[in-house]
Specification:
The protein has 318 residues and is α/β, with parallel strands linked by helices. The chain has helices spanning 5-8, 21-33, 49-61, 80-92, 114-126, 145-150, 161-174, 181-191, 195-208, 214-220, 226-238, 240-255, 259-270, 278-296, 301-317; strands at 39-42, 69-73, 102-107, 131-137, 152-155, 178-179, 211-212. It has three domains: 5-155, 3-Layer(aba) Sandwich (Rossmann fold); 161-220, Helicase, Ruva Protein, domain 3, CATH 1.10.8; 226-317, Zinc Finger, Delta Prime, domain 3, CATH 1.20.272.10. Helix 5 links the parallel strand 3 (102-107) and strand 4. The protein is elongated and about 75 Å long. The structure holds adenosine-5'-triphosphate and magnesium ion. Residues 49-50, 107, 136 line the site of magnesium ion.
């Protein structure tokens, strides 16, 4: 895999960002004014936060934007001292071109402890004349209030399926892939609004075969297709514990799922199972939550998944 498609096909300008309508509108105003305050981007992975920071810098500073941009990852900078000294060093020289300020992009800001955030707040103040900070995080609740109040806050949402589909189709066309519609649909289902995940899934499959169909997507993405999960549930209902257990083993092997993947995927499909009544679905959801927790805590995969199968067999038999 030479170049990552997520990088290659990353929008270069704010207006090319998919979805995130209100974010794009507001950033568009900054881009046209060439001026903005400190910014805080919050939202789930793969929804365009880093992309938006880069695109805004590009719109404001032009092709040479990297000269006015310092990128840092908060989880790499163990000590806040290293952030302070890098910022100091960077802020010392005047911005390139006729830009009014330089930009510091701090990724994963929610990885900083509260103490470190307190110190960051002072750094932001100290260099406010010459630098703008763009902070990115998954959870804005993990960012202390004084920092939030110094920033314009932007919330990124999981992308709607239609946006994911369009971008996948666009990238597939530009990479000269032969992709069928239900493969695009499968990618969208797997991505759940995370466009990075969608494009990575596409590239992994394309490395094996330039003709991409639904089966290839599922087999290369550690995801079971809905009909395989349905078949497992049906086996629980009709064929009894041993047959269902066998089916589960086959499914895990074929699609390369870990126990936790399986529980998460089954959970997502549970509500679509029309042969289960509401009460049974609720009971099973609680059971799945237990099993998931135990798996994460190191419980045996075989025992936990057998217990889940046993419970399903009992529920469905009733
Ligand atoms: N809204 C979007 N419009 C167009 N492309 C996008 C969008 N969101 C994500 N992408 C694609 O997915 C890739 C990853 O997105 P990005 O790096 O912006 O995610 P992020 O929100 O910063 O995620 P994380 O929280 O994991 O840092 C981008 O390089 C781009 O190709
Ligand atoms: Mg990012």
């Amino acid at each position: 895999m030479s170049e990552l498609w997520v990088e290659k096909h990353r929008p270069r300008t704010v207006t090319d960002i998919r979805g995130q309508r209100s974010v794009v509108e507001r950033l568009g105003v900054y881009a046209s004014k060439g001026e903005f305050p400190h910014l805080l981007f919050a939202g789930p992975p793969g929804t365009g936060k880093t992309t938006a920071a880069m695109a805004l810098a590009m719109d404001v500073f032009g092709e040479e934007f990297r000269r006015n941009l310092l990128e840092m990852n908060a989880s790499d900078e163990r000590k806040l001292e290293s952030i302070r000294s890098k910022v100091k060093q960077f802020a010392r020289t005047t911005p390139y071109g006729d830009a009014p300020f330089k930009v510091i992009f701090l990724d994963e800001a929610d990885a900083l402890t509260n103490d470190a955030q307190g110190a960051l707040r002072r750094i932001m103040e100290q260099f406010a004349e010459t630098c703008r900070f763009i902070l990115s995080c998954n959870y804005s609740s993990k960012i202390i209030e004084p920092i939030q109040s110094r920033c314009a806050v932007f919330r990124f949402r999981p992308l709607p399926d239609a946006e994911v589909q369009d971008q996948v189709a666009l990238v597939a066309a530009s990479e000269h892939l032969d992709i069928v519609d239900d493969a695009v649909e499968a990618i969208t289902r797997i991505a759940q609004g995370d466009l990075r995940k969608a494009l990575t899934t596409l590239q992994v499959a394309a490395a094996l075969d330039r003709t991409i169909d639904r089966g290839l997507i599922y087999e290369t993405s550690a995801t079971a297709p809905p009909e395989a999960l349905h078949a497992y549930l049906m086996a629980c209902k009709e064929d009894g514990f041993h047959a269902a257990r066998r089916r589960l083993r086959e499914l895990l092997d074929r699609y390369g799922l870990a126990g936790t993947d399986f529980v998460a995927q089954l959970h997502r499909n549970l509500y679509a199972a029309d042969f289960l009544d509401e009460q049974a679905k609720l009971r099973l959801t609680e059971r799945m939550a237990d099993v998931e927790f135990r798996l994460v805590e190191g419980g045996s995969e075989t025992v936990q998944l057998d217990a889940l199968t046993a419970r399903l067999v009992n529920e469905l038999d009733a």
